[in-house]
Write the C-alpha coordinates for this entry.
Amino acid sequence: MNFQDDDFEAELRASLKHEPAPPDFAAKVLARAGAFPAKPKVVVMPVWRRPVTWAVAAGLMLTAIVPPTVLEYQHRREEKALQAKRELLYALSLTKAKLQQTRERIQRNTRHTL
Protein backbone atom coordinates (compact mmCIF):
# COMPACT_ATOMS: atom_id res chain seq x y z
CA MET A 1 0.00 0.00 0.00
CA ASN A 2 1.24 3.41 -0.84
CA PHE A 3 0.54 6.88 0.51
CA GLN A 4 -2.45 7.55 -1.79
CA ASP A 5 -4.21 4.36 -0.70
CA ASP A 6 -3.83 5.37 2.96
CA ASP A 7 -5.32 8.81 2.23
CA PHE A 8 -8.22 7.25 0.31
CA GLU A 9 -9.01 4.84 3.14
CA ALA A 10 -8.83 7.63 5.70
CA GLU A 11 -11.24 9.78 3.65
CA LEU A 12 -13.56 6.84 3.15
CA ARG A 13 -13.64 6.05 6.89
CA ALA A 14 -14.27 9.70 7.73
CA SER A 15 -17.16 9.96 5.29
CA LEU A 16 -18.72 6.71 6.53
CA LYS A 17 -18.36 7.68 10.20
CA HIS A 18 -21.70 7.52 12.02
CA GLU A 19 -23.17 10.89 12.84
CA PRO A 20 -26.33 11.26 14.92
CA ALA A 21 -29.39 12.71 13.20
CA PRO A 22 -30.38 16.30 14.06
CA PRO A 23 -32.90 16.53 16.91
CA ASP A 24 -35.75 17.76 14.66
CA PHE A 25 -35.11 15.14 11.90
CA ALA A 26 -38.09 12.93 12.80
CA ALA A 27 -40.45 15.93 12.92
CA LYS A 28 -39.27 17.13 9.50
CA VAL A 29 -39.75 13.67 7.96
CA LEU A 30 -43.24 13.29 9.39
CA ALA A 31 -44.21 16.81 8.29
CA ARG A 32 -43.02 16.13 4.80
CA ALA A 33 -44.76 12.74 4.66
CA GLY A 34 -48.02 14.45 5.56
CA ALA A 35 -47.58 16.88 2.67
CA PHE A 36 -47.90 14.06 0.13
CA PRO A 37 -51.21 12.32 -0.55
CA ALA A 38 -51.59 8.94 1.12
CA LYS A 39 -52.32 7.14 -2.17
CA PRO A 40 -51.00 8.20 -5.53
CA LYS A 41 -53.71 8.97 -8.06
CA VAL A 42 -54.19 6.02 -10.40
CA VAL A 43 -54.78 6.86 -14.03
CA VAL A 44 -57.10 4.32 -15.61
CA MET A 45 -56.27 3.63 -19.23
CA PRO A 46 -59.22 2.80 -21.50
CA VAL A 47 -59.48 -0.90 -22.33
CA TRP A 48 -58.82 -0.42 -26.06
CA ARG A 49 -55.53 1.36 -25.33
CA ARG A 50 -54.05 -1.46 -23.26
CA PRO A 51 -51.46 -3.70 -24.97
CA VAL A 52 -53.02 -6.79 -23.39
CA THR A 53 -56.31 -6.03 -25.13
CA TRP A 54 -54.58 -5.88 -28.51
CA ALA A 55 -52.69 -9.09 -27.81
CA VAL A 56 -55.91 -10.91 -26.90
CA ALA A 57 -57.65 -9.52 -29.98
CA ALA A 58 -54.80 -10.65 -32.22
CA GLY A 59 -54.88 -14.11 -30.63
CA LEU A 60 -58.62 -14.42 -31.19
CA MET A 61 -58.25 -13.34 -34.80
CA LEU A 62 -55.54 -15.92 -35.36
CA THR A 63 -57.65 -18.68 -33.85
CA ALA A 64 -60.52 -17.63 -36.11
CA ILE A 65 -58.44 -17.43 -39.30
CA VAL A 66 -55.78 -20.14 -39.04
CA PRO A 67 -57.92 -23.32 -38.67
CA PRO A 68 -60.08 -22.64 -41.75
CA THR A 69 -56.94 -21.78 -43.72
CA VAL A 70 -55.28 -25.03 -42.68
CA LEU A 71 -58.41 -27.01 -43.54
CA GLU A 72 -58.61 -25.35 -46.96
CA TYR A 73 -54.93 -26.15 -47.59
CA GLN A 74 -55.47 -29.79 -46.64
CA HIS A 75 -58.59 -29.97 -48.82
CA ARG A 76 -56.68 -28.63 -51.83
CA ARG A 77 -53.84 -31.13 -51.25
CA GLU A 78 -56.36 -33.98 -51.12
CA GLU A 79 -58.01 -32.76 -54.32
CA LYS A 80 -54.64 -32.60 -56.09
CA ALA A 81 -53.79 -36.10 -54.85
CA LEU A 82 -57.13 -37.47 -56.10
CA GLN A 83 -56.62 -35.78 -59.47
CA ALA A 84 -53.12 -37.27 -59.74
CA LYS A 85 -54.55 -40.70 -58.85
CA ARG A 86 -57.24 -40.39 -61.55
CA GLU A 87 -54.62 -39.35 -64.13
CA LEU A 88 -52.36 -42.25 -63.14
CA LEU A 89 -55.20 -44.78 -63.39
CA TYR A 90 -56.18 -43.38 -66.80
CA ALA A 91 -52.57 -43.59 -68.01
CA LEU A 92 -52.31 -47.18 -66.73
CA SER A 93 -55.54 -48.17 -68.48
CA LEU A 94 -54.25 -46.65 -71.75
CA THR A 95 -50.97 -48.47 -71.32
CA LYS A 96 -52.81 -51.74 -70.64
CA ALA A 97 -54.93 -51.27 -73.76
CA LYS A 98 -51.87 -50.49 -75.91
CA LEU A 99 -50.01 -53.50 -74.51
CA GLN A 100 -53.02 -55.70 -75.23
CA GLN A 101 -53.14 -54.40 -78.83
CA THR A 102 -49.42 -54.98 -79.22
CA ARG A 103 -49.68 -58.50 -77.81
CA GLU A 104 -52.52 -59.31 -80.26
CA ARG A 105 -50.50 -57.98 -83.22
CA ILE A 106 -47.48 -60.02 -82.19
CA GLN A 107 -49.63 -63.13 -81.88
CA ARG A 108 -51.21 -62.52 -85.33
CA ASN A 109 -47.84 -61.95 -86.93
CA THR A 110 -46.33 -65.05 -85.38
CA ARG A 111 -49.24 -67.20 -86.65
CA HIS A 112 -48.76 -65.92 -90.21
CA THR A 113 -45.04 -66.52 -90.21
CA LEU A 114 -45.21 -70.05 -88.88
Summary: The chain has a mean pLDDT of 85. DSSP finds three helices and no strands in the chain.
